């Protein structure tokens, strides 16, 4: 065992105590399990244990106050899911004069009259929010109309009504219907480009599975980032197989128990923020040169997801299988992109999607983890801009704005 691993084990042992301190134990478990569900797992060697807790807290506060990430806002709107859940979205509009000439595909879909401008709809991942697309949103402002929305129980959207009132677990099909409600409210007509990361990509697949006519009639391109069409129950999160199997056996029950003690677990998560931060960084990013403000931004989104929401959503991923729905994208320009170092939805899952869509562009980003759009925004933005050009969503000569960098030596964009 390495020195840092030994320190981590000792820290956990000290925190729980021989007699077992429930509050601290559930805090550590809540932190670890929260990140498993958000794109992480427990069992990570914790960095910087020798740094004073007060100093780390001050550093987090400083990053919160200076980091610009997640600060972009658009015209707000609300859609309502089929169970009454309030879904929050924002629209970044574009000057109608900037709408490009009709492409051959758009002529076929909409006739020769000028349709509404193309709208790019971004769907975010588990335990994140619409703000996770910060760099891409900044780059596309003024270039193309975009819609960013918060999945149910995430960000500024309301808690899932079925989950709260009826105790019905979330499934990916529900998220597909939620996306349809957002499209109906925010993009009632005109061509659409669908972009989804992780759970957001699964949401896009569920939309296609339930509303194939929408894909056929209105969708002009699709981007699937760091996502999977199924078999997520086989992912080992970079851990030994025996350990993963043991976690899978107990995790549903542990999550349920933690969800029933949400207030206590949330207090524990705050008390173990340093452990939580180390886990998030390990499972969100693969490169070492990540802007600390970006890492803190990701941490803030994930830690803002209540443990009972984590518990509600977790079972949906094991059951997720939308492989057959990919066929609805076969005739469209498709971008499939993933980080090679993604431990949450491994890049092999993206390769499997691309194998079923042989005309899709497959981009595997070296030195990138699950949050590739924050870690290497230049790659994601460039490939997305190219997709939009191929789909006729933006003129070929359009200039996409600055996307910033996550490098610790660069200024935020």
UniProtKB/TrEMBL annotation:
Name assigned to this protein: Alpha/beta hydrolase
Pfam family, one: Abhydrolase_1
Keywords: Hydrolase, Membrane, Transmembrane, Transmembrane helix
Domain AB hydrolase-1: 119-377
SUPFAM superfamilies: alpha/beta-Hydrolases
Cytoplasm is among the record's keywords: no
GO molecular function, one term: hydrolase activity
Organism the protein comes from: Streptomyces cylindrosporus
Regions crossing the membrane: 28-51
Hydrolase listed as a keyword: yes
